[in-house]
Every structure is written in structure tokens, then in C-alpha cells.
């Protein structure tokens, strides 16, 4: 790869290696286990793992589990599963920040001994008042000039559980007049008598993220600590911590722009709210863009890898059209999956001149664009299911499907002419009738006559009943994601459940995550949670067509 085509992070790494700042590369992905990962995290995972792989370096998987108020073992396990699925391999390098609590405590003691940290008795509200504003400097805490001995004694007593929650904190002593508010004596330890998902009840004081994170990176030998832009203003504190603690090879923090999708809920706290309020059926609800939800819906690791690649890496914040993610899954599946027939809104078609009781096995290609996928046999009989929308008694102009007197092609089978229909007392069509041309087997007429309409079907007697779930955006795109009061504009039609669908009998054995292209209806995946061999459930991954077009530069491989 030429230097000119490298992103700005690669250029920084190249410079560091050339100048001997580091002689290797070590990156990490450090999620807090307080929720499931989403599509934005996928970019961070693949970026960090990709850089380590590109430079022959090391990739660390580390849980930043320093906040027991929100963290759960469930989230730890889901994150590990998601990252493995995305294709990032941490090997033997799985770490927990909580395992470094002894080193972090000693680091805090070291700062106290250097006169760089003190125990403060101000309340959280008072600390905020003393901090100042963007235009006014803060003022010093009345406890800022405690002696080293007193601070050591108080901090040890904090550790030993002598003080209630919120009564005391440990603060770094930096500069209350700093233009960067993060440097105005930030809190680095707090009292919290809570059980931790990894360390149990061993600790009742916990380090703050901005103090813990640089220590974790330094302990693990991370060279390039890559994070998103909201941490740019925290970088001076990151550098202060590693400098004051005198680590011999301090890591370097580099920030890049987050991945934002248009009209999609990505923030963990918003997804959590949707889950807790029952607006979705869990963190893996296929309407969400958590990694678990995308996997359950039928997205592939390759499609997400391609999406992240197309998004690129930059310093500039921008939003990506959700349609690009859909484009990536279509491109990934279209040549890999069998194209099968499934009828989602069925009406029965009876071919009156077809022999009763006869069943033919027709050989059909699995994918007309990829012959290597081979072929399969599909049963054909007198009674079929077709899509209800493929018949109209009084059609408009340019409607080429079934209506009385019109001839259509049954896909891979025969020409059939519609002769009429049956209706119930409410006037609803219950059965469509037609006659077939035995000489048109395979969908071609020996006399050369043409038909304009081709429709799919399944044989009624052998068809497998299934449930199909059709998804739209969870957000009402016409109104935007959030209202002024912070509530979300949810789309009431984000899920349509069709319980009377019929699929080819060959799909009977389909298992969790198996995916197919349902002819004319889209790409579908077997639901991993609710589907059973005796009661198949399919999730629509994406429709077949979109108005989205990839820019020429990206289509040519230039990001």
C-alpha cells in the first residue's frame, strides 16, 4: 500500500516506527460491559484489529470494567461473541481492567506521594460549582493542600470501607485555571460499596475511566490507543497520567470520527431504554443495529467488514446513509445464496387441466448468476400457492401477471392461462383457476409465443408453512430520531408479521442463521431465537432493490 492511500492513523504509526518511538504496534478494543455492541463499535473493533494485523503487531481485547453500577456478566459474554463473529482474534490477549485494580491503587498512592493527588470532601455538586465554566476558571478545593501523610491515611481508609458513598473522592492535583475543564483537578477515585461482576466485594473504591484507561494501556504495552473524537479533550489528562506515573514507553492516544448512521438509534443508553420499555424484544431485536441484532437479522461479518471499509477513517464527523449498510449485505449475499421460492401472502392456484394426484420434480438452478451453486428439485402439482398480489380480477394497464384471459409463466415450470377465480361471501378471492400448456415445460413455448409476466409459486401439498417477519426502520424517518423532549419517534409499522407463508419443502431443514434469497421478496434468514424445525421463522434481512448507488470512487475500491 502506498503512503498516499493510507489513512491518517496509519501515517502516524508509520512515522512512529520510522523515528523509533515504538519498535512494534499494539492496539486494543476496550468496551465497557454495560450493554451490547452496535455497528459503531464494529468500526472500532475492525479498525484496531486491522491495524494490528497490518503491522504484524498485537491486538488486545480488554473490558473496561471499572464501573460496577452498570456492568453485567451478560454483557461481557455478548461482547466476546460479537467480536469473534466479526472476525477479530485476540488470541491469548483477553484482559479485564478490574484485574489491574491493585496496580491502579498503587498508582494513585504514587501520585499522592508526589503531591499530585489529594482526598477531597466536597460533594459532587460542590465539585461541579468549584470547577468553573468554559469562560471562568475554577477555584481550589479547601482540601487541596492537605499533607501527603493525611492524604495517604484518608485514601487507605477509603479503601478499607470507613467512609460512605459520595463522602470523599481522590482528585488529581493539576490546574484549576486550565482552559481545559478536564484538567481542573479531575476526580480519579470514588467510594462505591458495590459488588463487581469480576472482583466481587474485594473493593469499595473504584477508579474513574480517565484515570484507569491510560494505566491499562501502559500496563498492557499498548502503543497506539485509538478512540473516538469525544476523547480528544481528554487527551491532555491521558498524557498527564502516563507522564506522572513515569511509564517507560507511554502509549499514544489518537482520535478518529465515530460512525453515525442516518435515522438509526445507535447510542447504548437509547438502545437500553428501548429494551427496558419493551419497544423492542431485546438487545438482539432485528430492528436494532446492535451487532447481535444484525447477526440475528441475517447480516454477515463480511458485509459489515465491507461497510466499515467503505466508511473509511477520518477526523471529520459525518453520517452514513443506512442504505449503504443494506447495499453491502445485498452485494455479499447475491452470489452466495440460493434463490428459492416462497409465497408470503398466498392465494391458491388450481390448474384445472393438470392431472390430479400427479407430482413432477422440476430441476431448477440454485442461483442463475452463480452456476457453481448447482441445482435442486422442486415439486410441481395441480394445486399451487401464488402471491395474492399476482392476481387481479380487473387489472390496471401494464399489469402483466394473472387476470382472466391472460397467460403467464410459472417460474421454471409452465405457461398458465388464467380462466377465473372463486370468492367468499365478502368478495375476497379464495382460489384462482387456470389451465397449463404441457408443451411449455421449463417456461418456454415451442411455438415461440411470448408472455410478459413471470410469477413464482410453491406446490400446495408439499409446501412448508412458515412465519415471515418484515422489518422497516425502527425510526419514523419523516420526523427524525428524537423529539424535543428526548423521546424517540418510533415507526408503528417497523415490524410486520406474516404467519401464513409457504416455502419450498427443501427449506424444512434450515437452521439458525441460514439465509436465502426469496425470489422477488428479498433476502431472508432463519431466526436464531424463535425458529424451530416444526415452525420455521424467517427474518427479512433486506429487500432486493434500493435506490442507493455507491459513489464511483468507492465502487472502484478508493475510499
TrEMBL record:
Binding site for ATP: 32-34, 38-44, 228
Chain positions recorded as L-glutamine binding sites: 64, 209
Major subcellular site: cytoplasm
Gene3D superfamilies on file: Glutamyl-trna Synthetase, Domain 2, Glutamyl-tRNA Synthetase, Domain 3, HUPs, Ribosomal Protein L25, Chain P
Glutamyl/glutaminyl-tRNA synthetase class Ib catalytic domain: residues covered: 25-334
A UniProt-annotated Pfam family: tRNA-synt_1c
InterPro entries from the UniProt entry: aa-tRNA-synth_I_CS (IPR001412), Gln-tRNA-synth (IPR004514), Gln/Glu-tRNA_Ligase (IPR050132), Gln_tRNA_ligase_bac (IPR022861), Glu/Gln-tRNA-synth (IPR000924), Glu/Gln-tRNA-synth_Ib_cat-dom (IPR020058), Glu/Gln-tRNA-synth_Ib_codon-bd (IPR020059), Glu_tRNA_lig_a-bdl (IPR020061)
Highest taxon, organism lineage: Bacteria
A Gene Ontology cellular-component term: cytosol
Quaternary data: Monomer.
Family: Belongs to the class-I aminoacyl-tRNA synthetase family.
Name by which UniProt lists this protein: Glutamine--tRNA ligase
Native source organism of the sequence: Candidatus Scatomonas pullistercoris
Gene: glnS
